[in-house]
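A common beginner's mistake is to predict each chain separately and then try to dock the pieces by hand. The better habit, illustrated here, is to supply every component at once so that their relative placement is modeled jointly.
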Amino acid sequence: MYNVLRTFCRISFLLGLLFIVNADIANAQISNTISKINFGPAIEAEDVKVDVELLQNQQITSINFFYRHSGITDYKQVEMELMGMNARCVIPGEDVALPYVEYYVVVTTPAGEDVYPGLSVEPLKLIVQAGSPKDKEILIMSPEKNSNVALDEFFVSISLLRATDAVDKAKTKIYIDGNDVTSMAVFADDIIIYVPENFGQKISMNGHLLKVEIYDLQGNLYHTIQSSFTIVQKEVIEFAEGAFRYRGEVNAESRREDIRSVDTWYNNIRINADASFKTWSFNSNVYVTSEEKKYLQPNNRYYANIKSSWLDLNFGDHNPRFPSLIMNGKRVRGVDGGIYLGFFNLDFATGQIARPVEGVLDSLIQDKTAFASNIVDIDSAKFGAPKGRLANFGTYERNLIAIRPSFGKGQNFQWGFTYLHAKDEPKSIDFSAKPKENLVLGTDLMLGIDDQRILFTAQGAFNLINNDISTGTFSDTALKSFIKGIDSTMLKDFDDYKKYRDMASQFMTINQFIGPLNPQELPTAAADMALQLNYFNNFLKVSYQYKGNEYQSFGNSFLRNDIAGITVYDRLRLLENKLFVSVSYESLSDNLQNTKFATTNFNNLNTSLSYYPRTDLPNIVISYGKITTENGLNLTSPVIVDTATKLPDPRRVNLIVNDNTAKYFMQLGYDFFFKYKHQTSFSVNYSDRQDESPSDYDVKSLNINLGASTTWTEKFVSSFGLVISQTDLKGTPFNYTTISLAGRYYMMNDKLVLNSSINPSFGDFQRIYADFYAQYFWLRNLSLMFQTRLISNSASGTMPASNDLIVGLSSRYTF
Amino acid sequence: MKKFIFIFLVLTSVPFLFGGNLPVKDSPVAILIRAMKDVTFKKGDADWAAAKIGTTLNTSDEVKTGEQSIALIKFTDNSVIKVRENSSLKIYADKNKQSISKNTYVEKGTVGFNVSKQENEEFKFTTPTMVASIRGTEGFIGVLNDTSSILVVTQGLVNVLASLGLQQAGSVGAGQFAVATNNGSITISNLTVQLQNQANNIQQVTTRKVIIRTNLFNLTIEYLPAP
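With all components supplied together, the output reads:
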């Protein structure tokens, strides 16, 4: 029965489709800037590398990656590092949870934002795999995974101590580089030993792959694990373990892009170097590009790090991590790091988070009373006029300092206190307005019990913001005038107010633009707390968040404020981590300080069922979600009705929010061997938004992804992908189909790698883009790559048809 | 006299303390993954023999190191102990289904440990004057010339109990060390720089080799680099 099912699955997958090559092709959506997104292995609780391949990078000012796992509603944001035709970032392991991580990418250009996979399309899903519990049943005692082993100390030792009673230990097989060496191994109950020397065998001085297969009592393959190791001279190990080690990489690229008849030449070079000495490690990264422009924020990157078990120092461009309410994902050019002594730790960061970019002056204005949104005060002594009309506002230099002392190692307890101060430098540019200042104070607590199976975390923060520090702190006269304006009887305590001003101005610019104005309503306070329990294969997390409507930290520009509510997330592991059932529910509300016409309630239910059989059967993920957003307003609400006409005011009907979105998702993934090795996948993503408000902006979206990758020989891999997208935007259809065909071929003893793909799109979106690249390895550590990309765009709306061409040459050297 | 009675009791009773599941004598519980210079082992009543890489160790087996010698022993649960020079120890282990509880009796010398957290398993070190239960910790344990014992913890938390006299108990955290004396007292203090360096050196097991090549023969001298 099992074999029949397995055969059925194989044949149906092969005949029914030539399935998903890999996640990349499945994710091939339409975009003017993004070609595809590649991910490293997505394993639960482990960091995932994200690599966005760009179609072209003309005019891109920033790329931000948004992601969330099914337990939360808010997307987290990380600014990607733009490196030539790629942009990279990492999803931290703490955010990689079963069954998937949803994501989308926003590319910002001067013309606006390009959202991938599209504003009306459901965010994409990265399926997260659970680690197999069977991995723990085979312990490789020697050689250790990814280790260097001296030739005269090499032997293989496997422990089956953890193997269950279902395993027949005597049937275990050991392979080195695919060669079965089981017959030369000694079986001693839980331990299996293979010493090549005893059989006159020799192992070569290079990298090797050890594979261990264990079988059940019926002789069926129960589990397989693999481990790499390298045989080296003992002197190499001595050198590696005791002395200075280093490695490095240099990448250089020159590329010409002809996009819509605009020719641009790009040149960039990237140098990475790592080194270590005993318990110290050093890391550096320099990226210099011709895209570095004075009128943009930096595109060059300079970074150096020195690290030990108790010290971590970063110099240059880095994203320091503090409690998320205060600082997370923000690039700082300066110095950051920490000292970690266990009972006491100190994190700090200081540097520039925005460099000065001068505004563009349109004209000088002599009339001191002139007023318009783009008219600002300027230095009359310097420019001969008191005011100027700006074509573009500049960006002030913004510097930041953050300090977080904490107590406790963080295994069972840690209590931290954070201070952050960020300030614009008003004199850093001539043409702009309203330089700002921000001060945030916060505390965070972590309590873990029973190896963190019970974990309580909490953080709170409060901020002050000054929205215009151009005039500096109040002078005595200005302070008196300000107090008088509030209540002239307060002037009797004027000396006290002066004292308070002098005291407070040591930390912050004190003038009439400082907030919050209503501190008793906690508009600039934020807090969250979470309790998680991890027992009986069930993970439960209950959390609460509160973010006042004016809460703001310059260390984290991506926080969603004016929101409060609870989130409950529960995930049950069944059948030895093969079956996962998860449910999450979130109930949030805004309008915390009654600053809006009505309170909007956001309710979000997500359920999913994931099955990873770890045999020759497909993986399955099925999920259903329902999002309800409403604010209780309708056409008869007093807020909407015009008091004069007694009819709904057309200018206010768009305040009504009432929509329900149902989301359905299914994905099958199947890797199997049928004549050749195939990796396949199939997914369907359907969402239906019913907008019950007068706007009636109903959206239906269906995305079907198919793909297959086949390894025909060791030298040749081909892939096929198909994307069918059907979207109905308020009755207007937008349908397209994309086919992807790709191949990779190794020749000249693997010295030359050829790779090409063609991706035509039909329907309401018409485009063909084709890729070709060839990489030639002159030496083992030196390669040269030629890349060309042709994009043929059909006319669309006001955009004429165009043929774009990108040609590039790059080289890579490692040492 | 009291001390010798205690040692006798420890040596004779440890196998029985492991209770209901008497270990299978023929079932190896550990393996020697590195043996430098003078490392010998003893199985039951057999004579001491030179140990080499891949030697399996059963419960009750003994291991001894000589001058400038090191032995690395890996248990079947992948936990490792590093036996430094001039040390002597006896291994006790009790396998129960898929778990193994270990007790290493350190008679003399110094043994480094690096043990990851394990459920339902214990890893104990016993010396003439101390019993230490470790779980997810790194450090070393040593027996001094007067048989008092020192325990240094660089990571994690270790519960210690003095075996003799006062039988004081305590918990030793990361960055601390404990000394158990012959009168059963335990003193816990913060690590000194010297002890911290010693702990680092004990975890370091890389040896150096000097090869003198002549026309007739090659002389290889393997040695531990000076800390």
